[in-house]
Amino acid sequence: MTDRRKLPPAAAAPDAEEGAGVTRVTPPPRVSIRHVAETAGVSLKTVSRVINDDPAVRPEMRERVRQAIAALNYQSDPLARSLRSAHSFAIGLVYSNPNAQYLVSLQNGVLSACREQGYGLQIHPCSTPAHGSVQELLALVQRSRLAGLVLAPPMSEQRDLIEALAAHGVVVIRIVSAGEDPRDVQDSVRVDDRRAAHAITEHLIQLGHSRIAFLWGDSYYQSSVQRYAGYMDAMRDYGVDVDAGLVLEGEFNFNSGFRRARKLLALTAPPTAVFGSNDEIAAGVLAAARSVGFDVPGDLAIAGFEDSPFAQLSWPPLTTARQDTVEIGRRAALRLIERVRQTQSGKAAEPIAEIFTPELVVRGSTAPPRRR
């Protein structure tokens, strides 16, 4: 006889299909702002004010809510917050840089700041430096309800674009190479490529090199211009003559470095050292040197810039200038969010700037020149 007693609630809860051998378990509900309020013993409004960094919340109340958020691992939804509020809680990162390693590092830095501050991130690539138009970026800001934009080079170096965005009230923080233009100090995170390039060239000169080649990156990047300026500064400071035949224009990639190095190494009097505008160029120089039987660093010293995996994984590893792209991206995003909050609160804000100087890292690819 079948026992038809009613199952207790706990046994009746699972949603199962007889004979299917599969039990469907309803996933636990997502932690909501209501759970945070109940755990902290405060109102929903108080939790909302803490999440939105309302300065009027008492410190002890703020701490209670933050402890509840941490205990519950609560993650706010930036889009939902933006829809509920007159303010936006998402920013954009705009770039047209083909260097994959640079972009990954930059995105990681911006994303870490967004997570820290409870903001969403919209990534918007432009196919070429001239592709990004004012209309395109204004449409992006409006469509995605963005509070502001982080612009990476070379987009960040287009003066007309920056001024047009400002005229339309778009909050922008730029990542730029620190140049001579005093307007570059405004609302930017600056990289002092010139000083770092001077340090690299100085290192080669102090090793005893005088025939030092310089390989440009793409000339429409201010970083190329500034790195060349730093190279020239050091050569001038030490009274070393610059052979124009050892300064070659090109692109920020391995193949460009390889091709130009083969030209240099075929000269009757080849250089004893090569400074590539980035590590990818320098890695191409290293491959070219090996292809014609040059020993590195004995016959040819090589230096790059940025401290990318190209520098760290080459053999010998490359002397370079370490550029903390992750931290640069993080600081740019934090600066943007700070500026957005000032704008939303109606507070007057002074132009802000922060400078990063890449640090010289000496590795096995550079040594004093051999006598020929």
From TrEMBL:
Q: Which GO terms describe its molecular function?
A: DNA binding
Which domain of life, per UniProt?
Bacteria
- Which Gene3D superfamilies would you find in this protein's record? 3.40.50.2300, lambda repressor-like DNA-binding domains
Q: Which InterPro entries match?
A: HTH_LacI, LacI/GalR-like_sensor, Lambda_DNA-bd_dom_sf, Peripla_BP_I
- HTH lacI-type domain boundaries: 31-85
**Keywords from the named record:** DNA-binding, Transcription, Transcription regulation
Tell me which Pfam families the record gives: LacI, Peripla_BP_3
- From the UniProt entry, list the residue stretches annotated as the region Disordered: 1-28
Q: Which PANTHER family match?
A: LACI-RELATED TRANSCRIPTIONAL REPRESSOR, LACTOSE OPERON REPRESSOR
Q: What is this protein called?
A: LacI family DNA-binding transcriptional regulator
